[in-house]
């Protein structure tokens, strides 16, 4: 059994770390983006790795739970512990040093509390790209991005957070420090602890620093928004783009018109690129080396795809501003969704060839459950859809929230039947623990449990995340 | 304590699997490429995953060790158990089905006994590339390549085996089967078991099938062999090539003239491309999409690098045959090395910027140990050197083998001091268990042991590999 934070325990921590580590206003740490859960506990923000280790050691000795807190942007409740004995909420916000940049190695070493946008900027400062990019990049921090193996819009080309990390420094659940901050591209010396920690959502330790992979900055950038007649046409267009453009294809985002309608309805205001909004469109982004010609590549792709009946209309960005305007549409959809207020949201992955089937079947099944609006968008190149369900236009926000369990179960059952994943990039957190137990392979579940028990035998690290709390 | 295979146990296995699973001639399974270790045990080659599970279950019940055996090409003794109670040597050679190919998803699902060259061919048959490529591709099998997280010549562009695998089917040490053969690009549902199994060298379970990632086949191929004045110049050339060519750079191999001298001395016969063999040369490979022009890219790179003093001479392949001739040089160096007979061989990785220092310091330190020849070559783009030491030209093969421990210790000490890895791509096997204990971070070693004990509590899976046998 775990113990809650007591005044005595708080005093003990106050003796271990500086006064600046304690927070008077804890409200921001106890709410989360969709407002679905309410947290609790003692918020502590240590100043460095040694201080993190001191706090963790004290928690281990007292069997007090630890909830690691990074940017607070997670969507599955991994950063929020509603119930149980009061935990220490361990915030990474003061671990904000970029420790070193090695342009000739394409490596940047930073602490876990650095905000993603700052890492992107530091890379740009040495003419490199850190390719991780997602809507919350202005507030999400590296530690949480790694702990959740974050995805985003450039996974197609550069992989997810896992693919962008070479080494880690981690404070283990007993307070010892794993010094694994290697800058090596190859290192076959034992089990892959780095990838085990990445995506473990703070249940096996606390990431305090990381060696991140940079890439040469593509200098010839291009983007196009193309109207496609169907999801299958979008997939065929993806294959055509892959064959013509190869690795230069950075992003391939699918959007249903519902997202553009939401933007028109509630904002944020964006420039609508089509006179008549098409049912489906794809946003394509290219990044080529100096010798490349993205406009020519996009024009050729558009012409060939048009001839093949794969696109019916399109806009090719002619400037950086136009490209940004296209991306503004895609990047503001999550905010429009928040303004409308979803009944249920799903972050699913499917085998690429199953995507059209899923979209067709889910629509039919949803209609049987009630009159709702579907906003289906996402990273088609990765088979990753954000499939979000909203009340009908005449219904009030929240009026149909009672449908959430039935909607989620239907969607997740369908995803499982099509060999998909009920969490493509957001993780399990506390929200999807039941889904993992329900849909997870039994041998997999046995291994997850064995690993958790082996590396965190007291169960103090982010209890109730990924696996049910014991 | 483990039990050895007894006649009774063998009879039990004969009742579980077909007669064709048993091997009369076991000699090939008990020798390895460099002839350094001699194996033992009962060789069993089950016909399918169910049969693998039956054998493993029987071994688990009887506490008999299992040595997974794939292509037998490993260089660190992972496939050879010299001592201890006789194990079951479980060969994957009959698991040779390619179960499915999904060209539109860029996925191929095959069993673990498929030879790498066959996977490459199956990918080519659907106009795709399976990018894993290494000298032993004609005999190495997928299971072993994944178990050792194999590298090879295309890691720079496509990553190692880990980056080329989407899903696994694994027989666990208790005989249960983990059905993890997903074709998904994104799946954040729990700890990363796939990457834990990949690189575990058969100590946590037996990989029986894999979903592999294919890529669009680069259609415009080019190669060049360029003479460089120094390892530092080679690194600067790598940076220049990255900036000019971007992702199209598939391979960047460094070769010291010693390798070309060995080829001239003992074969295999290759066409020497330079009139005077340069001290250092790099082999560059490009693969571009249809619109690319690799010749123009290589000519521009050569011209710019020549002007910058980074290359002094070079050959650009003008045909597929010429390209193959350049690659023949690189790919035959390991065979030439075998014909000469090394005193010690090292598969090391370094932070890129530390490579020139290592090469300079190691040469001085070696000279202090004796008169030896150094063949330094490898995947410079990954910071991965094969740094192999041979007797002086007038010394007989094997005459200086007594120097091996001192040479290895000096090299590995130097690698550790430069934040490198003592096993870049070959793994730990049984050969480097002591090195891992000596150079490994204590927190890392504790986690490796905890994971091994959690997932293989009886310690029957490939005992003595990665970690010391208990």
TrEMBL record, chains A, B:
<dbReference type="GO" id="GO:0071949">
    <property type="term" value="F:FAD binding"/>
</dbReference>
<feature type="domain" description="FAD-binding PCMH-type">
    <location>
        <begin position="30"/>
        <end position="217"/>
    </location>
</feature>
<keyword id="KW-0285">Flavoprotein</keyword>
<protein>
    <submittedName>
        <fullName>Glycolate oxidase subunit GlcE</fullName>
    </submittedName>
</protein>
<dbReference type="Pfam" id="PF02913">
    <property type="entry name" value="FAD-oxidase_C"/>
</dbReference>
<dbReference type="InterPro" id="IPR016169">
    <property type="entry name" value="FAD-bd_PCMH_sub2"/>
</dbReference>
<dbReference type="InterPro" id="IPR016164">
    <property type="entry name" value="FAD-linked_Oxase-like_C"/>
</dbReference>
<dbReference type="Pfam" id="PF01565">
    <property type="entry name" value="FAD_binding_4"/>
</dbReference>
<dbReference type="InterPro" id="IPR004113">
    <property type="entry name" value="FAD-bd_oxidored_4_C"/>
</dbReference>
<dbReference type="GO" id="GO:0022904">
    <property type="term" value="P:respiratory electron transport chain"/>
</dbReference>
<keyword id="KW-0274">FAD</keyword>
<comment type="similarity">
    <text>Belongs to the FAD-binding oxidoreductase/transferase type 4 family.</text>
</comment>
<dbReference type="GO" id="GO:0003824">
    <property type="term" value="F:catalytic activity"/>
</dbReference>
<dbReference type="InterPro" id="IPR016166">
    <property type="entry name" value="FAD-bd_PCMH"/>
</dbReference>
<dbReference type="InterPro" id="IPR036318">
    <property type="entry name" value="FAD-bd_PCMH-like_sf"/>
</dbReference>
<dbReference type="InterPro" id="IPR006094">
    <property type="entry name" value="Oxid_FAD_bind_N"/>
</dbReference>
<dbReference type="InterPro" id="IPR016171">
    <property type="entry name" value="Vanillyl_alc_oxidase_C-sub2"/>
</dbReference>
<dbReference type="InterPro" id="IPR051264">
    <property type="entry name" value="FAD-oxidored/transferase_4"/>
</dbReference>
């Amino acid at each position: 059994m775990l113990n809650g934070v007591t005044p005595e325990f708080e005093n003990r921590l106050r003796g271990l770390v500086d006064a600046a580590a304690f927070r008077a206003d804890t409200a921001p740490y106890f709410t989360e983006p969709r407002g679905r859960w309410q947290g609790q506990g003692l918020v502590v923000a240590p100043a460095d790795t040694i201080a993190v280790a001191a706090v963790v050691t004290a928690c281990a000795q007292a069997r007090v739970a630890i909830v690691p807190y990074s940017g607070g942007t997670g969507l599955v409740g991994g950063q929020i512990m509603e119930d149980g004995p009061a935990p220490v909420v361990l915030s990474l916000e003061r671990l904000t040093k970029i420790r070193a940049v090695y342009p000739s190695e394409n490596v940047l070493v930073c602490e876990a509390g650095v905000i993603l946008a700052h890492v992107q900027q530091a890379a740009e400062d040495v003419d490199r790209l850190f390719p991780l990019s997602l809507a919350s990049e202005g507030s999400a921090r590296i530690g949480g991005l790694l702990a959740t193996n974050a995805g985003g819009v450039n996974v197609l080309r550069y992989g997810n957070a896992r693919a962008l990390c070479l080494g880690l420094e981690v404070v283990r659940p007993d307070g010892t420090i794993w010094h694994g901050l290697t800058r090596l591209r190859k290192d076959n010396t034992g089990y892959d602890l780095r990838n085990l920690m990445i995506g473990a959502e703070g249940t096996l330790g606390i990431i305090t620093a990381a060696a991140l992979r940079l890439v040469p900055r593509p200098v010839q950038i291009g983007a196009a928004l193309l109207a496609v007649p169907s999801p299958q046409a979008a997939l065929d267009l993806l294959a055509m783009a892959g064959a013509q453009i190869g690795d230069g294809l950075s992003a391939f985002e699918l959007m249903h018109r519902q997202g553009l309608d939401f933007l028109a309805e509630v904002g944020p205001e964006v420039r609508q690129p089509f006179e008549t909004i098409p049912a489906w469109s794809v946003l394509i982004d290219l990044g080529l080396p100096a010798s490349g010609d993205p406009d020519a590549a996009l024009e050729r792709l558009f012409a060939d795809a048009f001839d093949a009946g794969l696109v019916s209309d399109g806009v090719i960005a002619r400037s950086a501003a136009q490209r940004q305007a296209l991306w503004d549409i895609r990047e503001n959809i999550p905010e429009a969704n928040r303004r409308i207020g979803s009944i249920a949201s799903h972050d699913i992955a499917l085998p690429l060839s199953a995507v059209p089937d899923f979209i067709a079947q889910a629509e039919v099944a949803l209609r049987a459950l009630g009159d709702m609006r579907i906003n289906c968008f996402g990273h088609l190149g990765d088979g990753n859809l954000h499939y979000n369900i909203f009340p009908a236009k005449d219904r009030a926000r929240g009026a149909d929230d009672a449908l959430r369990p039935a909607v989620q179960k239907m969607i997740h059952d369908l995803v499982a039947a099509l060999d998909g994943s009920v969490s493509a990039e957001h993780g399990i957190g506390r929200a999807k623990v039941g889904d993992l137990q329900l849909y997870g392979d039994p041998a997999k579940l046995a291994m997850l449990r064995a690993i958790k028990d082996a590396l965190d035998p007291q169960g103090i690290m982010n209890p109730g995340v990924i696996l049910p709390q014991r």
